[in-house]
Amino acid sequence: MSWGTELWDQWDNINVHTQKGIDFSERYIHFLKERSSVEMDYASKLKKLVKNFQPKKRDEDEYQFTWSRAFVDMLKEVYDMASQHEVVAENLTGTVSRNLQDLVTETKTDRKKYLQDGARLQEQLRQSSQTLDKAKRKYEKAHYDSERSLDNYRKADADINLSRAEVEKHRVVMNGKVQQCEECKNEYAAQLQTHNNHQTEFYSQTMPQVFQQLQDMDERRIHKLQECVLQCAEIEKNVVPIINTCIEGIAKAAGSINTAADSKLVIERYKSGFAMPEDVPFEDLSTGQSIEPSNNQTPRIPAPANSVKNATVSGGKGKKRGGLFGIFGSSKASVARKNSKLRGKVSTPVKVDEQKEDFSDLPPNQRRRKLQQKIDSIKKEMAKEHSEREGILKLKDVYAGNPALGDPSTLDKKIEENSQKLDGLRQELLKYEGYMAEAEGKVSRRHSASEDSRSLSTSGSGDTQHTQQVSAPGTPQVQHNVYQPIDGDEDGEDEFDIFPVIGHCRALYPFEAVNEGSVPMGENEEMQILEQDQGDGWTRVRKGDGSEGFVPTSYIECHYYDADQV
After folding, report:
1. Residue 393's CB: how many other CB atoms inside 10 A?
2. Which of 7, 145, 325, 562 could form a disulfide with 478 if both were Cys (CB 3.0 to 4.6 A apart)?
3. CA 393 to each of CA 189, 289, 382, 397, 412: distance values in angstroms, whole numbers, following the listed order
4. Helix (H, G, I), strand (E, B) or coil at 557
5. Least confident residue range of 8-12, 132-136, 267-271, 449-453
6. Residue among 53, 49, 36, 50 nearest 95 (CA)
7. 3-state helix, strand, coil in the chain (%, to 5)
């Protein structure tokens, strides 16, 4: 099908149609640009969303569960999907839109040229038609004049009143008009032949060529538009496998969630290691006898240590501890009381403003976990320092072999600094390993800070140790100056007043008294509580044989009587 033969008389419609094609191409370009903008904006907002939900540095511990790690993996996949939308936007803008823009520019140029050629051919045909019209009108006028002169001659020849000369004059005029009419006729015939030839050529050759050029131009535009649409589909198709991979990654992240592992991690993170409380026995304070409750009795809820009034109760007066072991100062006790933990129930870690260096303020399991993390961190830092030291030593050897590269002595200072760092890290590692051994029950009691530092620098110390079960926690640290009086008690005699019984306790582990003021106890031994733990780690108790003294609070399970303090 050819426009030149089928649409030979539709020049104006072809002109409008080709312009509409160009307008559509420009509109498609605007569509691609706006779509690219939407894709880029979507990718940007998606990446911003992922960034907003990325775990913060301070919350890394909360992202150890499988469900939280799966969420982080999902965020990574969503980020990759956003990147693919950016790829789509860049390809649409950089490739498809540019090709279409080039096509529109080329189509506009060709269309302008072809329309000019068509207008020129139409103008030539119009001029030929005007020339023919002029020749025709001239021939018509000459023919009219010829017919009129012939009629005048016939009238003059028939009129007997006219002279011969007048008749001859009319004949001469008639012959001139006839001859002029013949010339105009010949000219008209020639012009008609020329016009017909030009018109035939116009409608059969020249103008169909212009129509064909416009048709080819429009078909090229359509074909190029088809290629661009296919190119858009190809761009989408190329990112689909990657997006599918991201979706599979999200599904894989969902499949990695393990409820059993998360439950186990919760146990490992929050398990305190304390034993569950047993039934609270009834104690008759008048006889000093205790009656075990039956199974159907409701056990009494143990009172938390931090809910008991500061200082022990004696005759309605609050008493302060004296200098037993030199560790019961009033200022320290006031701080310790704020950080005391619940007694008689599973304890949970209490966040304090300043956590102790050995994490002794945490339950046993959590303390061991924190210490292990600290030890792993120190070992990692030591490995880094060792690698740095090896690099410095190698560089020193290179300098020694080729002095032109540098002076080996300049590295001595760095080597010395590295050695100091390593020594410090070793001391730190030994200290925390000691804390870990203590937490695991391999050390009999805590050393003071000075003793810890001394034990790290030397292979051993002269501190007395005692043997106990491996599962027992470490005993609180002790200091010297036994029975040192406190302010306001010059003699320290209040320390030996009779204390009322404020509760009872059961020994979770055996304990041997090796310090003055402490008393030994056996596992599951029942005792009376005379004075609560004021944050120093020791509780005053009275045994069944009447002896009184201090035992480690972490070794016993306490129950208090005063319901007002629960």
Report:
1. 13
2. 325
3. 114, 74, 16, 6, 9
4. strand
5. 449-453
6. 36
7. 65, 10, 30
**Amino acid 473: pLDDT:** 54
For residue 160, what are the contacts with CB-CB under 8 A and spacing of at least 6? none
Amino acid 363: pLDDT: 80
Q: Which residues contact 3 (CB under 8 A, 6 or more apart)?
A: 10, 14, 208, 211, 212, 214, 215
Contact 328, 534 (CB under 8 A): yes
Please report, for residues 61, 145, 340, the alpha-carbon distance to residue 349 in angstroms, rounded to integers and kept in the order given: 15, 131, 10
Is residue 343 exposed (0-12), middle (13-18) or buried (19+ Cβ within 10 Å)? buried
What DSSP line would sit under 353-393, residue for residue? SS--TT-TTS-HHHHHHHHHHHHHHHHHHHHHHHHHHHHHH
d(CA 276, CA 344): 7
| Cβ contact 445:474 at 8 Å | yes
Amino acid letter, 184: C
pLDDT digits (tens, 9 = 90+) for 460-503: 333 333 333 334 555 555 543 333 443 444 444 444 446 788 88
Greatest mean pLDDT range, 228-237, 393-402, 405-414: 228-237
Which pLDDT score is estimated for 450? 36
Structure tokens at 84: 């693919």
Alpha carbon 407 to its chain's center: 48
Handedness of CA 539, 543, 546, 547 (dihedral sign): negative
Cβ-contact 96, 36 below 8 angstroms: no
Backbone φ and ψ for 74, nearest 5 degrees, come out as -65, -40
At which residue do the structure tokens 């535009």 appear?
Answer: 221
Burial 324-336 (b: 16+ CB within 10 A, else e): bbebbbeeebeeb
Structure tokens at 533: 């733990």
According to DSSP, residue 93 is labeled I
Q: Which amino acid is at 550?
A: F
| Across 217-246, average pLDDT | 92
Neighbours of 275 (CB within 10 A): 11
* Cα 553 from Cα 534, distance rounded (Å): 10
- What the block records as the tokens of 71 is 């969420």
Q: Is the pLDDT of residue 88 over 70?
A: yes
Query: Is 200:121 a contact under the CB 8 Å cutoff?
Result: no
Neighbours of 149 (CB within 10 A): 21
Q: What is the DSSP letter of 206?
A: I
Asked if the model's pLDDT at residue 94 lies above 90, the reply is no
Cα dihedral sign, 162-165-166-167: positive
What residues pair up with 556 in beta bridges, in sequence order?
A: 507
How does the average pLDDT of the chain come out, rounded?
77
Side-chain-facing half-sphere of 474: CA atoms under 13 Å: 28
C-beta pairs of 20-29 under 8 Å, 24+ apart in sequence? 21/107, 21/218, 21/221, 21/222, 22/104, 22/107, 22/108, 22/111, 22/221, 25/100, 25/103, 25/104, 25/107, 25/221, 25/225, 26/104, 28/100, 28/225, 28/228, 29/97, 29/100, 29/101, 29/104
